[in-house]
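pinning this so it doesn't scroll away 📌
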Amino acid sequence: MPAKEFELLKPLSERNPFLNFLGIELLDAGEGWVKMKLTYRPEFLQPFTVHGGAIYSLADAAAAHALMTRIMPEQYPTTVEQRINFLKAVKNQDVFCEASIVNLGRTLAYAEVAMTTADGILVAKSTATLMRLDIARARKE
């Protein structure tokens, strides 16, 4: 049986135009963590490996979704700062990631994200600082 966090996030994730455009999918979620996937498309190549921007977008989405499991529906996340280290090139493969909230403060949260290929090879690591926005402020901005 899926966790309540997954049930809450899945419809939101499926309606997100940017995630749909890139082919980023929420696979699983629990309190403070998510698993997501970027489905490979040849349009991501530059020219022989997957562009880092596509992988970064996966990391950013995953960090935000991990925070959403802790703060929704009263608040929404926004990224303040994110760093990424690319460790191995990705060619014709999907990229999977796991993100978790390491620290949750009243205003800011800190997340870590690991990205791998289907066979578990680590391709990138990312850290992110995110801000918690009240729903009224999130809708206004």
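📌 and the second one:
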Amino acid sequence: MENNPVTPSQRRFFLTVMISGISAALAVAAGWPVWRFLAPRKGAGAEEKVGVTRDSVAVGNAYFFNFRGQPAVVLQTRPGTYAAFSAVCTHLGCVVKWQSDKGEFLCPCHAGRFSADGTVLGGPPPKALESLPVALDGDMIFIG
């Protein structure tokens, strides 16, 4: 049997290939979540709508649901008048709660307050709740 010692240049080449492969795998593993965050969601097109029955939303009350993977809310401010908003606070992303006795939304994280039309009443939120389009068709409310 022949004993072939490995030369330093062969060892260096092998280590370079191994370290490069491991580095590439780590870069892909770290970059994949960033790519998924920045890439548009599948099915988040303009055609996506959510239907809610009018009976689900009493006057002065709110109905929470998921819209495009995020919490949303529809409320009936006056008989036959509906408004829909993202239920995510614009400050830190907490889900707002509807206070029917006060007629306003409250963010439980930092006491941000929003009116029934989504505008900021007080607290740290920098802007109003995102408004969602509402369409009525018979006894259904379509959001989106």
